[in-house]
Amino acid sequence: MEQAAYRFCFDGVPIRCEPLGMGHINRTYQIVTDRERRYVLQRISRTAFHDIPGLMENIAAVTAALAQRSPDPRSVLRLIPASDGGTFWTDGEGEAWRAFAYVEDSICLQTPRDAGDFAQSAAAFGRFQRLLRDFPAGTLHETIPDFHNTPARFRRFRQALAADVCGRAASVRPEIEFLLSREEECCRLQALRDSGELPLRVTHNDTKLNNVLLDAKTRQALCVIDLDTVMPGLVAYDFGDAIRFGASTAAEDETDLSRVSLSLPMFRAFADAFIPACGGLTDREIETLPLGAKTITAEQGLRFLTDYLEGDVYYSVSRPEHNLLRARTQLRLVADMEKKWDGMQAAAAPYLNA
Ligand code: GN1
Ligand code: MG
Predict the structure, then answer these.
(1) Cβ of 226 less than 6 Å from ligand 1
(2) Nearest CA to ligand 1 atom 5
(3) How far is Cα 304 from Cα 323, in angstroms, rounded to an integer?
(4) 310: pLDDT confidence band, cut at 50, 70 and 90?
(5) Nearest alpha carbon to residue 91 among 42, 57, 30, 34
(6) Quick check: 223 and 103 in contact, CB under 8 A?
(7) What's the whole-model pTM score?
(8) What DSSP string runs through 46-100?
(9) How far apart are alpha carbons 305 and 324 in whole angstroms?
(10) Mind listing the pLDDT tens digit for each residue in 93-112?
């Protein structure tokens, strides 16, 4: 990491470096230079991303398009070129590094303080999508193929189950049954995508609350970050992933499952800010937003459980059962969504045009 810190066109010489953020995939550091400039330095996960030039091309193109369409420089991530002029630098071990300007006076939340914070993240993700409406989606590389293809996620899950390389499957039977019994419903969105009933848009695909920066003073939405998974997708994915994380009453790895539930007020606050900010959604898209929340939550449970079965190779974990704990919170949330299904649908209904 020390080496990487000297390979970018920073203003000044790096004098401090410390870990930053709570991402599960890349390693992130904050760099401070002798000219008191701050930067974000990231090592991009090779486990998650197999086409790093393609990924960086996406980020360069998307940030350039956003910068053209938004006047405030703090509202868009700014890539810092490597000393050789490239968008990333590869070290002697083949690890790829990139750098961004640090967005000054910003905060990144793990939990919303109130519905206002959550609505701000909704406005930011909605705006992100609206600004990229005319972006040529076909030019984007698919950085993780089948990222939110739920049927494909179920196929991989079954493979992990059959291989059971860590001998963990027998101890998670209830979780396995829970997911398999919801497979049909959770594959519906993909069918609507395949049939063209739902339009493809440029989506972020990882819309956790901690992937938005808010202004530290005003708590207004500033900037959408973590652009690794910007790809063509369904609006329901972005809605769903945001709800799964930010409208849960507990953390993603809460150990006391009785604390995990869906907050309907938070769900409504998100829908009320997100739908208008996207603008121009079709009725079919609006109708399927609750299904997006359920599908992405179940899919996330499936992904955590798959990683648990495969021996924790994808998500960073800080204890042995971490992925299992995370999977359990997701399933608990799905079960609670089933109880609150009518309320979820009622929140989207006022936005239908017809
Ligand atoms: C990962 O990198 P981070 O922590 O923002 C993951 C998301 C998951 C999330 C679960 C590329 O996001 O898809 O929803 O963890 N990103 C990738 O917290 O797999
Ligand atoms: Mg992130």
Answers:
(1) yes
(2) 23
(3) 5
(4) very high
(5) 42
(6) yes
(7) 0.96
(8) TTT-S-HHHHHHHHHHHHHHHHHH-S-GGGS--EEPBTTSSS-EE-TTS-EEEEE
(9) 6
(10) 999 999 999 999 999 999 99
